[in-house]
Amino acid sequence: MPRTAPGYRGRFAPSPTGLLHAGSLVAALASWLDARAHRGRWLVRIEDVDTPRCVPGADPSILQQLERLGLQPDEPPWWQSLRGDAYAAALERLRLHGMAYPCGCTRKEIEAALVAQGRAPAKHGELVYPGTCRHGLHGRPARAWRVRCGTDESPVAIDWHDRRLGPQHQDLTHAVGDFVVRRADGLWAYQLAVVVDDAAQRITDVVRGEDLADNTPRQIHLQRLLGLPLPRYLHTPLVLAPDGDKLSKQNGAAPLRLETPADVLQALRAAAATLGLGSVATASTGSREAWLADATAAWARVSGLA
């Protein structure tokens, strides 16, 4: 039997920019299985702070998809769009401690400054902030808020361990630079919102897609600055599109087909195959509940919990 992890709390945090697809189901199933294998609690949080990208009606449809899949949260879902006061309080704490500052730069100005410094960004590469507004706006209006990430003389290096990927390291100062926590359009940045909410929901384990692994150092930096607990991390394999890129809503990923019990089991088996759960990835009989029980046992075995 899976062993109990006292106080284990996991979560699945979809963005309602469309319905769940095969790639997002992998993260949803992995986080649910990890919580069940630890005999912990599993939460759902709707990450809808990026309101221009949210599709009306997608959030209740996502919750319905999870219900059809048998992935039921143990507590009522949260919506980030209702959490602005908590994010504002966190930003104020950072500001009072001198760790956040207003920035008046546009993207074009940042790119031009990097070129002038001989640090032209690679195509599709990280736009490392050059620190233009670190010491004041110099009469320009504030557009965004950034958090400080060290200096050349005293860089911030983040070492962390991923339960699947192993030891990880990032020189946050030179790989990312001071990053945005409140956007120029007034919306809250993902990095701040996720850190504040993981702490507020007492999340102990973050299980999500591998494409978000490079966000983890930024979130650990914020957790340390705000004095918040650091959860454990596990980043799952990605489902790839035919062109080799991550399968996503942006490249036309089709919503999950969940019209019949057979559709549900087929979707779950495909996600299990991506997660390396061979013993249940090919199972074709039994109820959804029986399959999920077998998948939980398989996850416990491969995770060393059984």
From TrEMBL:
Belongs to the class-I aminoacyl-tRNA synthetase family. GluQ subfamily. This is Glutamyl-Q tRNA(Asp) synthetase. SUPFAM superfamilies: Nucleotidylyl transferase. Binds 1 zinc ion per subunit. One of its GO terms (cellular component) is cytosol. InterPro entries: Glu-Q_tRNA(Asp)_Synthase, Glu/Gln-tRNA-synth, Glu/Gln-tRNA-synth_Ib_cat-dom, GluQ/Sye, Rossmann-like_a/b/a_fold. The lineage of its organism: Bacteria, Pseudomonadati, Pseudomonadota, Betaproteobacteria, Burkholderiales. Its EC number is 6.1.1.-.
